[in-house]
Structure formats: C-alpha cells, structure tokens
Amino acid sequence: xxxxxxxxxxxxxxxxxxxxxxxxxxxxxxxxxxxxxxxxxxxxxxxxxxxxxxxxxxxxxxxxxxxxxxxxxxxxxxxxxxxxxxxxxxxxxxxxxxxxxxxxxxxxxxxxxxxxxxxxxxxxxxxxxxxxxxxxxxxxxxxxxxxxxxxxxxxxxxxxxxxxxxxxxxxxxxxxxxxxxxxxxxxxxxxxxxxxxxxxxxxxxxxxxxxxxxxxxxxxxxxxxxxxxxxxxxxxxxxxxxxxxxxxxxxxxxxxxxxxxxxxxxxxxxxxxxxxxxxxxxxxxxxxxxxxxxxxxxxxxxxxx
Length: 305
Description:
Blueprint: E1 4-8, E2 13-20, E3 33-39, H1 41-51, E4 55-62, H2 67-76, E5 80-85, E6 91-98, E7 103-108, H3 118-129, E8 135-139, H4 150-160, E9 164-168, H5 171-175, E10 184-185, H6 189-196, H7 209-226, E11 229-234, E12 237-243, E13 246-250, H8 263-276, H9 281-296
Parallel strand pairs: 1-4, 1-8, 2-6, 4-5, 8-9, 9-10, 10-11
Antiparallel strand pairs: 2-3, 6-7, 11-12, 12-13
Helix pairs in contact: 1-8, 8-9
C-alpha cells in the first residue's frame, strides 16, 4: 500500500498559545510568551503525518482578511495544503497555559458560515484529489454553511474507491457515515456515546458498568455488521478498541504536559502512519499513543518535535 494521506477538516484555525505564570480571574494577566500557529484537527493531523515521514495533503477551505497570514504559516510548517475560497474569516482559538498548575484551557471561536457554493467547490476538489491517495482521514466538525451530507458523501466515495478511511468525527457526520463502512473510527468515549446513544448522558471517564457495556456492545455490533474498528480514547483511562470481534484495552502512559491541544490529532496521525506501514492494530494504537504524548510535550499544537 502506498503511504500517502488526504487529511480533511473543513474548519481551519489560527491558534494563539499564551503562557501565563499564574491565572487570576477578574484581574489583568500579562504574558511574556505567546505563539501563533495554524491548527485545526486536519491541519494538526497532516503536520504530524509529515513529521512521521508520510506524504500528506490537507484539504480545507480558507478566506477572509487573514488568508495570506494563514498561508504563510502553512508554508513555514512545510504542510501541503489544497483549499477552496470560503470568503469567510478564519476563526481564532486561544490556548491559555498556566505554568503554576500545568493546566491547559482552550477558548474556541465558532466558525463563520462559508458562502454559498463552498460545499460544491470542496467536493469538486475532493473528487480531483482522491485518486492520488491511499488513505483519507476526516477530522473535526465542519463549519457552518456545509450540509450534513458532505462528510458522509466523502466517506462513500473514498470507500467506493477502495481507500482506507480513518474518521475522528462525531454527531450526524459520524452517524451518517457508518453505513459506508469506514475502516477505523476514533472518537473519544463521550463523543461515541453521544452519537450512538443520544438519549443518554455518558461521561468520557465513565465508570458506570451499564454505560461501558452498552458502548462495548455497540462497538461489537459495528464490527460484525460493517467491519468497522472502533478505537475510543478515555483520557487517562485505558483506550477501548475492537479487534477481530472482541473488545480489548490499551493502557495509556502519563507525562507532565506542556500543551495537550492537538494530542488527539497526533494520535490519529500516529495510528494512521503505523497502519499504512503494515503494523498490527495494537502496534498502531501504541504508535498513536506515543505521538499523543510527544505532542503534549511541545508548545506547538499538533506537533511531535
């Protein structure tokens, strides 16, 4: 199998990372150390794949007054990108890192709606690029202005073209994509439960045996019905995954983090890279875990070095 990936996320980000010696509410907090990076789940995935030696192209949209700044940062990071003009401002997100207690707080701007016609242009670009790649990853939520049909349609076309598909999505995007048989899905526990059991309130770190069993049963059902391998992260708790029709766990390691933003995307990249290299599922999960830990030790989100 060729080792190249089309990494998709239709919600780009300019990420400001701000270090604080302390954080006090209702006070002026000054920062002597702050950084600006391109981010978003697909951008982070593509960056780490490149750092792992995998050819990756990020497909997204972009536009607005900061487009040139965004593209300059993409070039600095040596990320290959294909985008359509959305005529919408690129959203900003902010990471506040409190050195005093090693806490990481993220403030997320909701994206502006993309203009009419963006979805068709994005699908046309996807159709043009798809034959060049052996694997497609799709991550995150789409910006306002896209329909619920675009992500499932991409999954449908990728599987019809016999591409490996790895999804890190949730909600209707995930639910409506399952019928097309993506190879791997890796939401966290809460996202998976919220998508498949919308009437229940399962927590990411759930210890409730009934909740755990319901999720495990659904993972097995997806495997038996469609051959879908579910990989569910649970914070510091062991990862749940379905391997050859049985549920197994993978213990997580612990590091004292610098910046945890992008660790899930780094996991996606490490997992995907290892799978493309022909490694077993458990080896690939361990690779993903390693990349997630390495990311947490970096300042830049979605980076392992």
